[in-house]
Amino acid sequence: MLILLLGTALAAGSAENRLETARFLIDRQARAQQKSMLYGARTASGLELAYRWRRMDADSALIEDLLEIELSGDDGPRFQLLPSGRLALGDQQPVLQGGDIEPGLASLRVRADGRGYFRDFELMVMPELGIDVGPGVDPSASLPLGWAGYHSSSWRIGFGVEDRWFGPGRFGGLMLTDNARPAPLGSIATEHRFGESPARFRAEVGAGWLDAPRSDVTRPGWLLVDLRFSPIPQLEVGATRTAIFGGVDRPVPQLGQLILPTKPHVENDPDQLLPDQDEMAALDVRVTLPINQWLPDSRVDYLEVWGQYGGEDVIGRHIGPIPVPALAGVANLWGGELAAGDWTATVEWARLLDDRFRWYTGHRVYHDGFTQLGQSMGHPSGGDSRSWNAAVRWMPGEWGGELSVADVRRVGAIDVAQGRLRTLMSDEVTRSASVRGWLYRWGSWWNAGLTVTTSSNVDFKTGRDEVSWRLFIGF
Predict the structure, then answer these.
(1) Which residue in 61, 113, 222, 358 has the fewest CB atoms around it within 10 Å?
(2) Which runs of E-coded beta strand occur in 194-247?
(3) What is the Rg, in whole angstroms, of the alpha carbon atoms belonging to the chain?
């Protein structure tokens, strides 16, 4: 029984609440049936999942129960308020949890998930109260989700804070994930299908500011651009870009430089007073092979592989007289997933380390990079790291379990000298093994788990080893 309750916070999209559960079930079924969908841009919206489910032309009592209010079809005002909570014990800090690292030996979180809809307008509000114990008692109040806007089957326009995810990765993404506390953002997104063909296109543009305290520039602005195209259900390609600019006492670059940074580096500015910006961009691809359609007698539903290639900061290059921005600080992410019946096996590798440039941190002005409260807004392993993640999930319906392992190696980067990255002698190595379980009862998705982690050369100090753990139960 204990093994079924072991778990990890490393698995992206884990079934910890009704909407995450619905997303996993819908997307997995859509992949198996080769439905026309885009998977690389995820939001916290329940309407988004309702629109996806309507395209499926399928029946599932569980999914329809999970999305009851979103699927009601009533044009009049409707509102739902559902409580949720989590109790965690231990000293291991979770990731991919909206920046909540649960400091202390015991952490309690209580939330009220409010969803309001009126025709094509959406309101999401989720206040949270928390208590962290050890060594003292630290109460807290926050708003991890607050969003209002217009949301139809083709358009989404709004403003607020919500967890986002871009790219095909399951355990992380190079650009934007739910690892850090979400930052305020206003955005406009559109998704369209080309006639009767399965081809789909999605574009999103957004702007906001990083509101968490920083050690470099206070409240810098940030931009988000994401483009996705799927000519056939088996293939999806995406391009994502973010930028940091301006901030308190910092001038804003010209609009043209924000759109296309052809002059990314400012020269002869020792006091760092001239306009500057930090860039991050990535390309990704997903290929889904419909094994069950090619081999009708096979028990395998599909095999999916994906990759993401990105870079941080921009180097100004030229093709003749034409200025062309080029990325530095190269990072790579690759993964694969095999689905058969109620079973899903996933493996993913990421390398956020470059031999000449830093990744996420190190910009001359915005040296904190794309972080909130020190947490990476992108991949949970952060910059200057290499990681492996693997998981096996069994989910036959209203219950399930998952076994996962992770291996993360962080490099202690110092600086770049003579075109080479200088690092500390010892790498920090962290290995985790976990299993978790779920059960849907009384209108809530109950989940529990335990993570055990061993760390070597902690803080890059040779011979400093630690063992940490985390036990949690939530609904």
Answers:
(1) 61
(2) 200-209, 221-232, 235-245
(3) 22
